[in-house]
Amino acid sequence: MNHLTAPKGWSQPLLGSGLAPWAGLRAAVAAGPHAVLAALDAAQLHCHRDGGASVASSWRATAATTGETRYAVAHAYESDPALFTTRLLLEQNAQAVVEGLAIAAFTVGAREAIVALRADDEQGARAIESVIANGVREGAFGSIALRVRALQGSSMIGESTVLMKALDGKRGQPEQTPPYPATVGYLGKPTAVTRAATLAAVPWILVHGAAEYAAIGDPAEPGTMLVQIGGAVGTPGVLEVPTGTTLADIVAAAGGTAKSATLKALLVGGPAGGFIPAQLLPATPYSSAGLVTVGARIGSGAVLALDASVEIPELAAMLTRWSADEACGKTIPCRIGTRRLAEIGQRFVD
After folding, report:
1. What is the pLDDT of residues 74-96, one digit of tens each?
2. pLDDT category of residue 59 using cuts at 50, 70 and 90
3. Are residues 229 and 302 in the same domain?
4. pLDDT of residue 72
């Protein structure tokens, strides 16, 4: 998947950071855990793909637990099989992900940190392992041990409690929350689980300052997100998008509507996302708050442009069948409800 050139004026802290290796980690060690958490609070760093969870709050919960054993995990497992944003990030800026993970481990008091990714992402794994090896040679990690863990399984592993089980070699079914992985995670121990793209922003914040990060994008949800846009656009690929950017501007940054195509709608958020009619794109910001008003969500970070040839009911039925097939089967709504929804959708299109 191609990395698309961002329009002039779009900040690029994830894919275009240009930081010196270990500058953020050194700043974290010099400032101390409390100062790191304060900086992330001031930057309003949230995981946009996990319901806008505050990174500082999650790390603070892990750091506040009793006991000596804690873990930090970089969540790089893409649950959407057609998504390549995290793979692209690992290939182009593995340094930021590893450094962010080391900062997380230092901040919460973890002695072991794990990068969890898909088993078929061999190039990403090699990039991470290379950065870890460099860090070990340079003594950057102190007493923290970092390693890569490749995982195989369904899309359910994208859910954080399932990810904890997968790391432990157990069946991939989610657990009720609370407790959250921050207090009961990997091997039943407190675990700071953070998306790879969110971790990549941490060194940038500590080097450039929280205020500069908080000034990017939507003031209520600052920062950038990796968006994969495909379908009926001129140049499909991955964009680093400031929050609050309109969907129309995202389409324009991907070369606009494909030649000879008429844009009907966008599917935003992946297989479980929402369809947004073309006429709403100029007024709809790409943010959690903006998307929910039109029945969509950030979800996996995928945006699919649909032209007039696409029958949306048929696509919705197909995606519902996929969701039913991927369901873990633990609860009745999951095991039976999704299957019934798929049957209803199929009857409608038939």
Report:
1. 999 988 878 899 999 999 999 99
2. very high
3. yes
4. 98
Distance CA 131, CA 21 (A): 10
> What CATH number corresponds to the domain at position 239?
3.10.20.600
Which residues on neighbouring strands pair with residue 2, listed in sequence order? Answer: none
Q: Is the peptide bond before 285 cis (omega within 30 degrees of 0)?
A: no
What's the burial of 26, exposed, middle or buried (CB within 10 Å: 0-12/13-18/19+)? middle
CA distance 294 to 177: 28
CA–CA gap between residue 76 and residue 264 (Å, rounded): 32
Amino acid at site 284:
T
pLDDT reported for residue 50: 65
Tell me, yes or no, whether 199 and 165 share the same domain: yes
pLDDT score, position 192:
98
Amino acid (one-letter) located at 140: A
Instruction: Report d(CA 20, CA 337) in Å as an integer.
Output: 51
Q: Using CA atoms, how far apart are residues 247 and 266, in angstroms rounded to an integer?
A: 9
Look up residue 313 and give its amino acid. P
Query: Alpha-carbon distance 230 to 93, whole Å?
Result: 22
Percentage of the chain beyond pLDDT 70 is 99
- Taking alpha carbons only, the member of 38, 96, 94 closest to residue 63 is 38
Please state, for a pLDDT cut of 90, what percent of the chain lies above it.
82
The three state secondary structure string of 113-155 is EEEEEECCCHHHHHHHHHHHHHHHHCCCCCCCEEEEEEECCCH
Determine the pLDDT at residue 16. 80
| Structural domain range at position 280 | 224-310
Tell me, yes or no, whether 191 and 262 share the same domain: no
In contact, 101 and 146? CB cutoff 8 Å:
yes
- Give residues with Cβ within 8 angstroms of 277, minimum separation 6: 264, 265
SS3 96: helix
